[in-house]
Amino acid sequence: MSSCKDQEEHHWYEAKCVCVRGPIIVGAGPSGLATSACLTQQGVPSLILEKSDCIASIWQHQTYDRLKLHLPKQFCELPLLDFPKNFPKYPTKHQFISYMKSYASHFSIQPRFKQAVLSAEFDHVLGFWRVKTQDCEYISKWLIVATGENAEPVIPDISGIDKFNGLVVHTSSYKSGSEFKNQRVLVIGCGNSGMEVSLDLCRYNAIPHMVVRNTVHVLPREMFGLSTFGMAMALLKWFPLRLVDKILLLVANFTLGNTDQVGLRRPKTGPIELKNVTGKTPVLDVGALSQIKSGKIKVMEGVKEITKNGAKFMDGQEKEIDSIILATGYKSNVPTWLKGCDFFTKDGMPKTPFPNGWKAEKGLYTVGFTRRGLLGTASDSIKIARDIAEQWRTIKDCNNNSCNSHVILLKET
Question: Beta strand 310-313 with 222-223: parallel, antiparallel or unpaired?
Answer without folding.
Answer: unpaired
